[in-house]
Amino acid sequence: MLFLRQIRAHGFKSFADPTTLDFTHDMIGVVGPNGSGKSNITDAIKWTLAEQSAKSLRGSKTDDFVFSGSSDRKAADFAEVTLVFDNQKNIFSTVDTEIVEITRKFVKKTRENEYYINGQRVKTRDIQDIALESGLTKSSLAIISQGTISNFAEAKPEARREIFDDAAGVAKYKKRKKETLIKLIRTQENLNRLEDITSEIGRRLPSLEKQAKKAELYKEKIKELQSIEISILVKDIKTIKERIQDLSSQRSVFQEKIKTLSNEINLSQEEFDLMVNDSSSSEMEISQLNNKFQEIIQRIGNLKVKKQEVEAREASKIDTKDADEFKAIQIKKQFEETRVQLSSEKDKAFRLEAQINELKEQYDYLSSKYNDIYDEIETIRKNISRIQIQKEHNENQRQSTQYGANQGADNVIKHASNIGGVVGTLLSLVKVEQAYQTAISVVAGASMNSVVMKSNVDVKKAVEFLKRNNAGRCTFLPLDSLNPSVIQGAQRAAIENARGFIGIANELVAIEAKYQTALDYALGTIIVVDTYDSATALAKNINYRFNIVTLEGDRILPHGAIVGGKTRSQNIFSSQSQTQSNSEELEQTLVRLDAKEIEKTRELNDLKLQRDQLRDNLNDNQAIIRNAKQNIEQYRVKTNELSEDYRILTGNDLLGNNQDDSNESESIKFSRQIAKLENERDEIQTRLNLLSTSRNKYVDRQRELNEQNSGKRAELDHLKDQSAAVSSELSALQERYIAILKRLAEGYGLTEEAALEMETDAIENEQYARERILVLASELKDIGNINIDAIEEYKVEKERFDYYDLQVKEIREAAEKLQSIIMDIDIAMETQFKKVVDDVNAALPEAFAKLFGGGTAELIYTDPENILETGIDIKVNPPGKKISNLNLLSGGEKSLVALSVLFSILKVRPLPLVILDEAEAPLDPANVERFARYIKLFTSETQFIVVTHREGTMENCDILFGVTMETKGITKIVKIKLVDAKEMVSKED
Ligand code: ATP
Ligand code: MG
């Protein structure tokens, strides 16, 4: 068969000139003298087919294969050989051209080996694959290099096996197996790596799942709790506030009553004291007057005795004989007595008249003063009640907004100087631009009432102060120990890029740098956006994690609750300070007015007392003056009658000489003195009467006051008890109210206002709802610490786990597939190998017998149990010999063994090309003859290139090439005739 059609060599070894060998026959002989370059042809073929071992090409490095120069030729720069094959029988199955040109080129300068198939640059491997298909490999018997024929017999069984592997075409399987194994190893490595990752994730997954479930449970419960609790809290707030309002007005009624009653008691006590004072002084006056009274009585008595003596003396001087004269004297005396009486009464009346006028004036003055003060008190009372209404109104308003409810903060600020370290409410420290006021008010109204403190130590003092004074509760922000949480990193970047983002609240509000921590604490996680839509979009993006508020004051709470709407008092920054100072002023005015009312009432009572006394005095005086006037009238009648009697008796008129006192009688003088003293006495008597009546009155009044006061005191005690009960209920309610506000703020980040605005679910069964809150709260407590991120983490890790797990499964399947491929390959290799060995064994006895002229041979497995690994031994029995060891064979015999195996192989698995470089050299001429003729049997299937010195071989060749070195060191090849060849050989001899 014609397979290799042409060799073109240039620069390879001794082929200095471009040399072409055209092969047109099946059996080609190559002849020529030693060293002419015959074996270089074999080398060229092997080199082109990508032989990598320099040694097997009889060199030590690639440079050795480039023409190295001669005495008159310089060395070549490169070596290039092209083999032209006939591929009509499709021996190179991967190349679909009829002619296949394979080229190898080595350039010294670049040190690069280039391979080409049909002019296309290919890789070394591609050439190696093609060589494998043609069977032209180092390990086969297809190329038997010079001097290697004995190798077959001498080789180790394992090396020998390779020949049969090649013949069986196992090489391609081996290659595939090797590739598959590499793939398998890689797959296995990959699998190990993925299994590591999977088991790593798998190890963490259960705890993460547990955490995630816990967090889910927590979320679920919190959500339920939120929906119930906010409703309940809102309901409670409403009830409590109503009740607080109710109780507050009750308390103010009680307090008002208590105040009035206390005032009354105080005033009556004062009145009582005043009376005690008064009565002690009047008591003194009474005793003085009594003394004076006694003295006057005494004097009157004395005067009367003296008067009687004088009268007696005067009477003794009167002539009693004349009855008329006597009578006239008596009448005159009576007349004068009466006239003294009359004048005394007139004096009295005149004096009293003057006194009464004076008293009347005084009375009028007191009355008008009394009325003035009364009016003044009325005005004061009106003002007080107006202010009280105002105050109550303010209080109500203050209580109706949750900001004012922070009694604790108010008290701390009020007593800042006592406590120390108080900086102020957050509200008082910040400056908020108009645009953000609503948003900040809505979201942080409550925390704006927190009190900023210099340090933790100060907070302790403030808390003690509040406790000691029962002064409410308050949130403190100690600057030295706050640890505010702020939004940072990737999360912050994402939020900042969100649509409608305006800022984080703590950065929108201005505060002095030293208080920034407090602001960060209160507002650090509150996001301000422009509109409701932006808010809902952002909330979803950040998984409802932070408080979001719009400029309009709509809010989205963590966990997703939404608060919206509008109220009047939405802006705490506009009105707060105003109402506060207002109510302080009112309180001060009220205190002042109360004091004034008491003072004026006291004055009024005093006046009343004075006026009453005046009236009594006046009444008494008027009675006396009436009496005196009657007396005057009587005395006047009497004097007229006496005067008339006297005129009748004497003819003289007594009334005419009443001017003259000088010749008045002694007794009349006494009478006059007596009358004067009696007047004085009566005056004292009147005064004493007045004093004693008023003393009696005082006693009555005092008794009355005592009675009244004891009643009032009992009432006061009762009122105080009632007020205390109301107060204690109030403070309990206020505490509960504050607790609710705290719960709303801490549990849900809600202000009261926000909570009231929320649309809460209606509660069907309140009792059940309250119990449920307790159950949920305790369940949440039982759940304990949770990691809300675990939900997302678990989701991600689970996805990763599933992904890797799937990969592991797929790769495991792939590995199994590769293993089964390897098993298939092994089976195929084993079958094919066995088949070849069996086939060769079947052909071997004949080939052996032909070449040896008898005898037999057999291939045997060194390890029949392991066909894939087994070595191949050969048992030979040359005619008449018994050989136990192949090494004992002669050189020629060894060659014959190798050749008989080669021919057996060619018989069962024909090779397209066999190159034999002096393989028959050791044979004797008879055996050469047999060998050469035997080859001819195979030429229809196999092309032979035979390098030979033997005539027997030459004679059987179809064509002969003569190899010479006409120019020293440079091979030249020409077709020659058999005779020329024989001549060449004979020359050698
Ligand atoms: P024999 O009959 O003894 O086997 P042969 O014809 O097979 O001889 P080869 O072995 O093919 O001879 O040729 C060897 C010759 O090739 C040597 O004389 C050597 O000088 C020459 N040769 C080998 N390599 C190179 C090279 N790189 N450059 C020049 N000449 C080389
Ligand atoms: Mg040679």
UniProtKB/TrEMBL annotation:
GO CC terms, sorted = chromosome; cytoplasm
The protein's organism comes out as Mesoplasma syrphidae
Q: Which residues form the signal peptide?
A: none
Annotated SMC hinge domain residues: 420-539
The residues the record assigns to binding ATP are P33, N34, G35, S36, G37, K38, S39, N40
User: MF terms per GO, please?
Assistant: ATP binding; ATP hydrolysis activity; DNA binding
Q: Which InterPro entries match?
A: P-loop_NTPase, RecF/RecN/SMC_N, SMC, SMC_hinge, SMC_hinge_sf, SMC_prok
Q: Name one GO biological process term.
A: chromosome segregation
Q: Identify the gene encoding this protein.
A: smc
Let me see what the UniProt entry remarks about domains: Contains large globular domains required for ATP hydrolysis at each terminus and a third globular domain forming a flexible hinge near the middle of the molecule. These domains are separated by coiled-coil structures.
* Domain of life per record: Bacteria
Please state where this protein is localized. Answer: Cytoplasm
Subunit field text: Homodimer.
Q: Which residues form a coiled coil?
A: 208-306, 342-397, 576-736
What's the protein called, per UniProt? Chromosome partition protein Smc
Q: What does this protein do?
A: Required for chromosome condensation and partitioning.
Q: Which Gene3D superfamilies match?
A: 1.20.1060.20, 3.30.70.1620, P-loop containing nucleotide triphosphate hydrolases (3.40.50.300)
Entry keyword set: ATP-binding, Coiled coil, Cytoplasm, DNA-binding, Nucleotide-binding
What family does this belong to? Belongs to the SMC family.
Listed CDD domains? ABC_SMC_barmotin (cd03278)
Q: Name one Pfam family in it.
A: SMC_hinge
